[in-house]
Amino acid sequence: MPLGLRRGTVRLEPHDLRWEEEAEKAIRIIKRILGEDAVDVQHVGSTAISAISAKPIIDLVVGVNDLSQILEYNERLLQEGIYYRSSDVANQLLYVMGDLDKDTRTHHIHVVIWGGAEWNDYVNFRDYLNCNIDVALQYQQLKEQLESRFSDDRHAYTKGKHALIAAILEQAGQRRVSE
To answer: Domain with 48 in it: what CATH number?
Structure first.
């Protein structure tokens, strides 16, 4: 299965072990460039949840201490095919990899404050679904329903997942507190 999707589209693929390999390659590049300014880099999102299907786009979260420092690396990241996309989500910088001429994305790289709410949400969501297969399959079922309705409208697809994601994050947070 080829990695990547045209921006704005939705297509789910069965879990592919190569996604972890692709994530590790990108993580090595990011760590080499950012050095100690990257406190941690992790594979997150549905491609990091082995029990479910996913859009063939690798999501990574990069935990940093200072978002503004990372912008100084934009030229070096660009040389490795990592494009700064935006900072239109609060407390987050978004970078992408892929074939921008064909409007195709293979990786979404979310840079957030390490240990902050955004970092914790990405990591807790992944960990909770990997430990709770029944909840992961419920999430997959919703994604499949939304894919059939919104295959050319990623915004509507994402919006349709919001309530369930919020509920899962609440469950994940309660689990962490009780540990």
So the answer is: 3.30.460.10
